[in-house]
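can u do me a favor
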């Protein structure tokens, strides 16, 4: 499985993995080359300008590998597949399956149909066939999990193609969400992230403007659930009841990702963002008043059509005022099919690059200053898997603080597993991480750590993998060609 894009795509890939596992496929061992797998699935993103180039470059690289192994199958799904549809098999005729964002549950059937009929299967649904959370899921983590509360988006931001590809917002029933969370906790998960394209607009389907804050408070009642996060909210829908729920619910973390996009009112208007600078900074002020320790991150686009130097300086002003813990910064790129792509006042690349570098330098300085304030604090770190690339060489472990800051810490003498909690004192700060170089103050073994240990100790069985099968291993036996509208049940 190759996944590009946002957290929604990452969670969709977990579902695709679960679907294929149920169909008999087994994960290829770590490090297996794509050309040695029976099935390679690309779950694509269409947000960035180079998304097309990245996909077709990868498909081109696989073409000669597939020629050598005729039984190999390649599937392309996700937002770019929803957008490009038949174009994919025209440009890459060796692709076997193309499926969209609304019918990911069809992947096993489409793979089988392509194998039996020996021709590409392109199936793009125009609307959601079933809420994705009803599908089998093979979660990548034993201790932390995504929980989707809605899909789609009702906004019409002029730079964004996602609503056209994901559709209008559709909310899950609160009872279904909480049942999934409770089931995950029973399996050992101790941290969940509530996920939606516009997560705090939750409730629009039900006519309840306070549905999201109620959901946060309900998560606080679930015994054994230690950390609750959510992403991504929209400033338009961020209300005082949500701030109160965050502040008053002990297991809801004081971490907030609040996309700014631009600090300029004229640019925000051109983007069709339904808030202005004062409204955004007002939210930040209220959050900090209720939760002084809150770590706030953001998204910013530089070089939107028509952005003047004065507009850009307004963005820099908001960054200085908000003092984000970190920011995901992007240079504007045209996306065909969006209103912004045809707007006048497209900014020259060199101007966008210069502004981008100034913004990154400012945010780097602020991130470092904010991290330095953590030095001397004692924090509970949930041990993570794969967060510290140098942990082996430095004899450290890595994990996340309650506010989601990345912390590298000295490995305790006792055995510590991902999902366990280690209490440490922060001794050093860098712009993008913290260090705790002294001995751990405490180690708490958790049910989440037990779940991780159980998963990794279990012998390989059918369904224990995630998706890609080695030649001859776990591939399903041929089935008769389906007749009519065959669907996954």
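np, heres the sequence
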């Amino acid at each position: 499985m190759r996944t590009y894009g946002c957290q929604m795509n990452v969670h969709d890939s977990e579902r695709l993995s679960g679907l294929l596992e149920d169909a008999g496929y087994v994960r290829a061992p770590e490090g297996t080359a794509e050309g040695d797998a029976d099935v390679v699935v690309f779950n694509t993103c269409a947000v960035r300008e180079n998304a097309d180039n990245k996909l077709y470059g990868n498909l081109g690289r696989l073409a000669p590998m597939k020629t050598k192994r005729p039984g190999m199958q390649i599937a392309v799904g996700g937002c770019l597949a929803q957008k490009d549809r038949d174009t994919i098999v025209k440009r890459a005729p060796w692709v076997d399956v193309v499926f969209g964002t609304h019918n990911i549950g069809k992947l096993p059937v489409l793979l089988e149909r392509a194998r039996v009929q020996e021709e590409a299967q392109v199936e793009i649904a125009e609307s959601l066939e079933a809420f994705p959370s009803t599908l089998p899921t093979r979660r990548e983590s034993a201790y932390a999990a995504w929980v989707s509360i809605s899909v789609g988006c009702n906004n019409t931001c002029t730079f964004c193609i996602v609503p056209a590809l994901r559709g209008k917002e559709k909310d899950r029933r609160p009872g279904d969400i909480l049942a999934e969370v409770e089931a995950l906790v029973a399996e050992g998960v101790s941290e969940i992230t509530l996920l939606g394209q516009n997560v705090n607009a939750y409730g629009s389907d039900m006519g309840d403007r306070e549905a999201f804050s109620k959901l946060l408070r309900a998560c606080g009642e679930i015994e054994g659930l230690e950390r609750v996060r959510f992403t991504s909210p929209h400033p338009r829908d961020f209300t005082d009841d949500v701030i109160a729920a965050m502040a008053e619910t002990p297991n809801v973390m004081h971490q907030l990702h609040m996309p700014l996009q631009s600090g300029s009112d004229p640019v925000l208007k051109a983007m069709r963002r339904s808030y202005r600078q004062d409204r955004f900074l007002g939210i930040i002020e209220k959050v900090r008043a209720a939760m002084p320790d809150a770590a706030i991150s953001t998204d910013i686009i530089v070089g939107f059509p028509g952005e003047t130097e004065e507009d850009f300086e307004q963005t820099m002003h908001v960054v200085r005022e908000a003092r984000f813990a970190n920011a995901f910064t992007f240079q504007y790129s045209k996306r065909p099919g969006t209103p912004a792509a045809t707007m006048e006042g497209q900014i020259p690349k060199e101007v966008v690059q210069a502004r981008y570098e100034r913004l990154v330098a400012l945010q780097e300085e602020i991130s470092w200053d904010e991290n330095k304030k953590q030095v001397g604090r004692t924090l509970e770190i949930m041990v993570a898997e794969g967060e510290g690339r140098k942990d082996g060489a430095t004899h450290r472990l890595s994990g996340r603080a309650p506010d989601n800051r990345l912390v590298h810490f000295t490995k305790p003498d006792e055995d510590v597993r991902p999902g366990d909690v280690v209490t440490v004192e922060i001794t050093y700060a860098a712009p993008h991480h913290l260090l705790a170089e002294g001995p751990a103050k405490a180690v708490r073994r958790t049910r989440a750590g037990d779940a991780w240990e159980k998963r990794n100790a279990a012998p390989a069985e059918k369904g224990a993998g995630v998706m890609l099968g080695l030649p001859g291993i776990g591939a399903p036996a041929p089935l008769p060609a389906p007749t009519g509208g065959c669907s996954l049940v």
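The radius of gyration is 23 Å. hope that helps!!
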